[in-house]
Amino acid sequence: MKLTKIIFFMFMLLLGACGDNEETDSSADVMYHHNFRPYYHYTPQANWMNDPNGMVYYDGKYHLFYQYYPYGTTWGPMHWAHTVSTDLFHWEDQGIKLYPDELGYIFSGSAVADLNNTAGFKTGNETPLVAIFTHHQNITGRQVQSLAYSNDKGATWTKYENNPVLDNPGIADFRDPKVIWHEASQKWIMVLAVFDHIRIYSSPNLKAWELESEFGKNVGYHGGVWECPDLFPLKDEQGTVKWVMLVSLGGNENSEPNGGSATQYFIGEFDGSSFVSENEEILWADYGIDNYAGVTWSNIPEIDGRRLFIGWMSNWAYANVVPESGWRSGMTVPREIKLKKRQDNSYVLHFSPVDELNTLVDPQKTIAPETPANQIHMDYHEIIAGGSYQVEMEIIPAEIDQFTISIGNELEDLTISYSKTDGEFTIDRSNSGYVSFNNLFMHEIHCDYQATGATLPLTLLVDQNSVELFINQGEKVMTTLFFPRYNYKFFRLDGNTQNEFVNSLTIKALKKSMIR
Ligand code: FRU
């Protein structure tokens, strides 16, 4: 299907002129986003959330813990809250599992299923789940690594009596342990963020840790403190295995790629002791500014061959002041990471929404317009009334130099533009609603991209207060928050050409998976 010159899908909401939702709207769907709650992204029921932690897949369930402050909507003494899911979208909250104690707040970390009971925590028939996290002593700032374990599939947790298992050698930033089982050397490997680099430790039993090597002092981007590392193997379609290191970067307003917090990655080799990066360039997991501290699930490759990622959908530059009320922050859509070999034989990662997202598609509310026909106006309310939908489209780069996707209402919009000449995507949210709570929030967001193929596939996920753009099957990603004053009512695609530049376009409503 080809669409004409200017594709213009403007589907006016049947509810009439926009006004302040609280005063004028009575529809449950419209009321829903008063406090910007997403439909299908994980959010805490109430209060503050940051990093995803302790992500482990065990006995058919995805466990997600997260940094949580239960007494307010800004960052405070950290706890681990817990939620579980069988499909990565419908989450059942399990409450708080780790509370601060005399060793400090419970900072970020990971969890593993200790299948061989190497730590000796097993008491019954269940495989012990073991959490490895940072204890942060608030007054001194001292950070050490500690353990907790569960013998009932994560329902209850006991802190290890001889914590910490890795003491602080006199380094201020010494945190966020991510542990994996290294099959070839039959030992546990921990990557730990240490201010401007990563330390790699090994252990036979999760309790005694030995320093193996250091990585990153002279590699990668250093415009901020390194946090939340992850190390894992990944196989490409030809069967080549590479090792991937993710490192989040707590930057400032001027940090790359777009200011504030971001996550870079390295692809290379790991021999059980040292990691060597083969990157020639700096690679980012996301350019959209609102995806931080993301890590991958443990015990996944052994189970279904997928490597799954989730990130905290915010940015430290403004996370504490975004206009959500009663709760703060969501997680990104869970993503599958794929390893791809480029034409020059270097490797990159592609991040795409997990296939489970398709189960939220409402087939009754899917439209693939042949032309910008009038009857589609009717469907807009059906499809996008809740502001939670997915757009799949294929652009023909040879036919177009610049196009713009905009979503918005009569007064506000967020635009995503592509310029072939400039070779970049730009997101402009300066007129997207509430923006003035932070300077960086008003900046344009850029992502270099040269469209080289015959078609350019784009997937756009919209969910009340976020857009996630997956460019060319996740080769580059942009995750960006926005806070509309009034309900967004339209999706548009405009091109600066007479040519037919759209190969296909489908809009699919996505059902609510989070009951909040
Ligand atoms: C990253 C981070 C981690 C730390 C946690 C504290 O966002 O700063 O380094 O463990 O948040 O909440």
Automatic annotation (TrEMBL):
GO molecular function: sucrose alpha-glucosidase activity
UniProt KW Repeat keyword: no
Species whose genome carries this gene: Mangrovibacterium marinum
SMART domains: Glyco_32
UniProt protein name: Levanase
Family stated for the protein in its record: Belongs to the glycosyl hydrolase 32 family.
Domain Glycosyl hydrolase family 32 C-terminal: 377-507
Entry GO CC: cytoplasm
